[in-house]
Amino acid sequence: MKKFIQTLKNIWSIEELRGKILFTIMMITIYRLGAHIVLPGINPTQMDSAGANSTGILGLIDAFSGGAFNQASIFALGIMPYISASIFIQLMTVLVPRFQKMQKEGESGRKKINQYTRYLTVIVTILQASAYVTYLQGMTQQTGGIMAGYASYFWLSTVVVLTAGTLFVMWMGEKITDKGLGNGTSLIIMIGILARLPQSFLQELSIKSVRNGQILVFIIEIAILIAIIMGCILLIQGVRKVPVNYAKQIVGNRQFGGARQFLPLKVNSAGVMPIIFAQAIIFIPTIFANYNTQASGFLRAITDHTNPWYMLIYSVVVIGFTFLYTALIFNPKQIADNLKQNNGFIPGVKPGQPTADYIGAIMDRITFPGAILLAFVGILPGIAQLLGVSQQFATFFGGTSLLIMVGVILDTLQQIETQLLMRQYDGLMKSGRIQGRQTTSAVQM
């Protein structure tokens, strides 16, 4: 306990780190306050009773937004339109030569791509907001959730407010990334998920406690949840260590190089992004159906995460995006060139292109099982719900919710630890350094 208190004091004594933490807390507080502001023309009491039972993919969307979706909040769509736009733009950087050229232009190209992403976010938000209006009108038709005097211009005002709300959340995410701790987009999603955890926990406890003998089942559920969390940490932090040697150089009377290090290739180098991308892609068809979860056929399958077809489609999309995102962020050729420039080599492998091919082959081999495990974790909430766990609590048994929480928390703790070590303080753990998704390579490039 004394060590923990001293670590908190060290964190607070660093002015830069203290400013980042306070700024992040301020942005998160604003986001959570906005999640409770109801759209103009909505009766909050009637809305609570009408939207309390969202299931399937709508329940996951509500979990992402921290309850704002069911509450008809100004932040009901959250950050998901921005995620969908980012997916499309990233695909364009692979398929369209013009976007490929912009990506290679450095900072100026990145600014252009970000600008296109913002424009596309507006379009996607307007489409999703229009579908959400139809969803609200159908859900509140019998309960009278929409005030009668506001019905004539409810569509226009709601689309404008939701679009402005999503753009404001996008802006907050970018500001957190620039001036706060961690990735702002991921952090906003994580906060929305964590906001539902206490309520879901208490609801599951109440359901199990009122039935004879079910309290033991609840304890088993908690034990399984802890085991799944530990497995997710291993999945996120798992690496394949490739040995790297550096040639000796003698300059005057001093010797340089000759050290034996390793190149850590992460089993899940894409982090939680494939899960987020897959969720956004599967979410797109619900736009054209106006969030209708009572449909049949294909639409019904992809809006029910307990459906075997949903699990299959979701797994395929996650595996595909894992390979795609890994290819976007991991460049074996660049790593091989950096090793060659620094007189480094992998034992038994020739420098240059053979090294790039060797690293690429290893990356492909470890990415495949990592992608399968990632897809399995993604469908665990549906499996948990089929085994009797309540829908809200089942979302924490894996999938997007759990991976985002574990990954973002590890990243944030790693950034804090880096700030401490830079100023010669002890890290957060005695046993070793925390490894987040963005852990830098052990090889000095």
What can you tell me about this protein's structure?
By secondary structure, the chain is mainly α. The chain has a single domain (about 1-420), classed as Preprotein translocase SecY subunit (Orthogonal Bundle), CATH 1.10.3370. About 65% of the residues lie in helices and about 5% in strands. The chain has 17 helices and five strands. The protein has helices spanning about 1-15, 15-35, 45-50, 55-65, 80-95, 95-105, 105-140, 155-180, 185-210, 215-235, 275-290, 295-300, 310-330, 330-340, 355-385, 390-395, 400-420, and strands at about 240-245, 250, 255, 260-265, 345. The strands form two sheets. The chain has a three-stranded antiparallel sheet with strand order 4-1-5. Strands 2-3 form a two-stranded antiparallel sheet. A hairpin with a 2-residue loop joins β2 and β3 (about 255). α6 (about 95-105) packs across α7, α8 crosses α9 (about 185-210) and α10 crosses α17 (about 400-420). It is globular. Residues about 440-445 have low confidence and may be disordered.
What descriptors fit this protein?
mainly alpha; Preprotein translocase SecY subunit; 3-stranded antiparallel beta sheet
Q: Give the strand order of the largest sheet, numbering strands 1, 2, ... along the chain.
A: 4-1-5
| Helicity level | 55-70%
Q: Roughly what fraction of the amino acids lie in strands?
A: 5-15%
Distance between the termini: 38 Å
Count every helix, treating DSSP H or I runs of 4 or more residues as helices: 17
Order of helices and strands: HHHHHHHHHHEEEEHHHHEHHH
Which term fits the overall shape?
globular
In total, the number of domains comes to 1
- Supply the CATH architecture: Orthogonal Bundle
CATH topology: Preprotein translocase SecY subunit
Low-confidence stretches: 438-445
Oligomer: single chain
CATH-wise, what's the superfamily?
A: SecY subunit domain
Integer-rounded radius of gyration = 24 Å
Structural class: mainly alpha
